Amino acid sequence: MKKIKLSEILTPDVITVATGIALREVLSTMAALRISCVLAVNSKNQPLGIFTEQDALRVLAGQQALDGLVMADVMTIPPLCASPDMDYRDAFRLLQEHGSRHLIVTDAHNRLLGIVTEEAFLLHLGSEELTAFKTVASVMARNVATIDEGETVATAAQQMHRLQLSCIVVTRDAVPVGILTERDAVRLELDISEPGRVPVGSVMSCPLITVSPDTTLEHAIQHFASNKIRNLVVTDQGRLSGIVNRHNLVNTLRGDYVKFLQETIKKQRRKMLQLNQQCLLNKLHSTALEASANAILITDTEGIIQWANAAFSNLSGYSSDEVIGRRPKDLIKSGLQSREFYEVLWQTILSGQAWQGELVNKRRDGTLYTEELTITPVRTENDKMTHFIAVMQDISERKLLEKMQAASLDVLDKIIANQPLPDMMLAIIHHLENLFPIIRASVLQLDATTGLLRQVIAPSLPDFYASAIERLQANSDASICEMAAFSGETVIIEDVQSHPRCVPFRELAERAGFRACTATPIKDGQDNVLGIFTVYFVHPHFPGQTKLNLLKEFARLAGISIAKDKTETQRLALTTSLQNSEARYRTLVEAAPFPVVISSLADGSLLYGNDRAQLMFGISREQGIGKPAALFYVHPEERDRFVSAVLEKGLVTDYEVQLYKSGGKIIWVLLSGRVMDFDGQAALTTSFVEITDRKHYEDRLREAAAVMESTHEGVMITDLTPRIIAVNRACLAITGYTEEELIGKNPAILHSGHKDQAFYAMLWQQLLRDGHWQGEILNRRKSGEIYPQWLTISTIYNEQQEPVRYVGVFADISELKRQQAQLDFMAHHDALTRLPNRSMVETRIKQEIEQAHRHGQNLAVLFIDLDRFKIVNDSFGHPVGDELLCQVAERLAARLREGDMLARLGGDEFILLANTLSDAQDAAVLARDIIAALGEPFMLSGQHEVFIGGSIGISLFPDDGNTVTELMKNADAAMYFAKENGRNQFSFYTSELNADARHKLEMENDLRRALLHNELLLHYQAKIDLHTGKICGVEALIRWQKPDGTLMSPAEFIPLAEKTGVILTIGNLVLDRACQQIRQWLDDGLDNVHIAVNISARQFRNGNLDKLVAESLQKHQIDGRHLELELNESMLMHEPERAIETMQKLKNIGVKLSLDDFGTGYSNLAYLRRFPIDSLKIDQSFVRGMIADPGDAEIASVIINLAHRLKLSVIAEGVENETQL
Q1: How many CB atoms lie within 10 A of CB 86?
Q2: Topology given in CATH for the domain delimited by 831-991
Q3: What is the Cα–Cα distance from 138 to 566, expressed in whole angstroms?
Q4: What is 398-574's CATH number?
Q5: Cβ atoms 751, 808 nearer than 8 A
Q6: What global pTM score does this model have?
Q7: Closest Cα to residue 446, out of 514, 498, 536, 519?
Q8: CB neighbours of residue 703 within 10 Å
Q9: Which architecture, in CATH terms, is 128-255?
């Protein structure tokens, strides 16, 4: 694992001030910059102290007047410091040990480099896998401290400081309405002068930012960042459930099961990501299939239709319900394809190959259409063919365009060949009638001199009809042909029998069998009318835009033909035919609505290209002439194949190739080509139609079909009935059904019966309203097994936004649910003892409080702390300690009554919830039973018999509290009272315990102020050498001289200093002043100077004692032999090996070491021999009892003899008379 140094994660921008700056200014700076701390430094930029939001809370809780206070009065000293090279994991442990949230980073000269906060550790200690899926519910603190909005700010601050809370939730009628945080303490200390009179509801932070218990930690962290807060209140349907803060998030990364969680969640994360991505892909592909402009059918291997999209209904005229279960041949077969055509098709797809081709089909209304069809077989993993997917594109218009291109080329050839006008007109009519068999056409030419219309050609009209319309007069009030000639616009008669203008012609039209007609003017290049192109229909008919465009194109060709016939005499045409043919052909090609190029058959060079061709290929005509046509082909050999096809067939109209478009873009096109004579040489005329979009869409459809079959999630498609119309392989594998058993069935076949009708009604309501539904559901396999699945249902809409299909995508989450259950157990139980943990017992206490309140019952909360557990754990190791905890759990659990709950809070602390008590005496009986059980010996590892005990605090409901927080807090306070009064006993909670807590708070503030005002003094007690009777040294004794002159014994304030961490500052102060006194006495001429200084446990274990001692000795220029350090036996046995290492470093400096209070603790002679000490100090309790108790005299004698054998000197503490001597 990569080592990350503090220098890589520290924040260098730290607000620093001098110690004399006014506290009000410090608070203003913190409030304005929204920072959590300010550092006090000296002129060398060395940290002297730190003022944090917790300190602001302490000041607020003490209701101290702000005016007159300076930074030095309130800052925490010394600040916790570390070097920039320290690994961030070691730094994190250091923070945890000291209960701090800020770590100051300094260089080798103790100069400030920056600061590291919990936020930095959250970023580096956290795990993306853990926070991405772990929810707020798994880490939130459930015993939320609350306070009514009517309570005062002072009360809130005192509660927060006493319980070391970072925030407290403000309630109104038990409903959370706001919050008070440490950051608010900074603001309030500035804004209000009498916190004891201001209600907390008037200054709380609101509105309250809340999250639900199922919010992921990832989102919670985003809330912290976006809202710039550190606390999130967790509510469930408006009720307070818990609270999570940044400190919780850092601490939750600790624990024995983090590694397991990370590995498990990594796997689940990958699986869920794949599932989500696959579901999204499936939904996208399903939506693409349904919304496709191409018609799509899915059939089984027998050709029975299983599914059809909306585009197929639009194309064929049949609804999806009408086609499901039927064969395509029974619906849309036109009969224009031969039997052999279909035999080849079926042979191809049954062999497992895709088939692609064109065919003519029939719509429901009987009209024909041309489609391009691709049929792809679908196979299972074992290569079994299950379905065919048919993708159909209506290419009727494209085929018309291709035929129109061919017709245009044919007519242009006839024009160039100078064929007679009637032949050219006949060719035009034949081409049109071949395109539209229901059409009959004629051409009338206008005599510009007489204004008469003369029939040029009418091959399909009855003779009597052709004669009747011969030599019509062009005017506005006559026949349709005359109207078109007069107006120059197309005239459409949808129904001759009903149109008022057609009254004179109705009988004639009825006799000819015509019901509708369209007359299109034939014009020259100057927009002069040359004649009329008229078409007739046998049924009432309105031509669509496609037909009108084609009619105009044919009219244009007719106009070119008539204009050509009128331009020159036959003689001039014969003599200059070559030149004029080329020019006219170029004119015709240039006017074509599609790209056309002419290339040489001999060498493939380009001879000509129209404007559309220049736009497509991005070069001018001059640049292109002479270049090889193959340059524009992505695969040049394709041109050779195309030329060969044209030479073989004479005309090719549907040839797919890829070309380079302008800018080098590759496109797909359909080529049409034929051979012609151009400038006396054989040439190839080629026209182009781009089909790039269609090719890409076909690829996407094939991919969608493949994805649906390859996904591991089940996919089910239904119609609106709903009826299952398609499933994939994964669906069959998950449900156990075959495809035949599911197709056509209602999805209710899979229901487990565990959900009522109301649930499904809600599901359908949301699906119809929102178009989708997602959630967890229980379904039944074919075998009858009930299993959980995660289901997403999406509605598929057509182009009119009408629902046409439902697509369900689901996954079997049985394994995920099993792992979630395991994680849930681990989240609510202690990993070592398997007992309920704090979260679970707090929830149970809350439930029991509600039950007891309704029924008027009593409850008891017993807070159990093991006595002497730490000694066992340190002496025999953590594995033995863990075994002891498990045996304790078993022994206590055996004494539970029905309905009681035992939980482990952590370390050696347990909670027992006892319900249905008749009175307090029942709780006392239970506590005595537990103490008796803990007093019996424990046999560990089959060889260590140990004795421990237990201290128990008891709080009662409703006497000692009405909330979980109050009961647990008060039981904890009672337990500490029991421990302080002799251990191995129990104590009931009393209100005086809170008064004691307030007294300790006030003393803590006074003690910090005493350090700054030099109120701590050193007194010196002489040590007498019994051999000489002379003073051989002194022991430094600390006293606290209050401002009123009274002296306070260290027994009154040292335990509090140990608990709060101030002991480190006091210890450093004593050490420095002792060295200073040695220097002064030496300077005064005293040479036999020795001062003994007591070292506290926290000072000894801080890790830098040897450096502090060496610095003090060097600072005052004294030798180490003048200084003696007194070490307590019990603190050395905490970690004996590490203690020996530290003691040896001290010995190397030259100081003397004395073992203090020997015989009062856990004496280990084996380690005593290894400790590099100079003397043993007999505790004064033995010295005082020597006269009255022979046992104490015997102990003192043993200690003296032991010390002499170990060549150690002996110091007797508290000798006051000759008898003791």
Answers
A1: 16
A2: Alpha-Beta Plaits (3.30.70)
A3: 95
A4: 3.30.450.40
A5: no
A6: 0.35
A7: 519
A8: 13
A9: Roll (3.10)
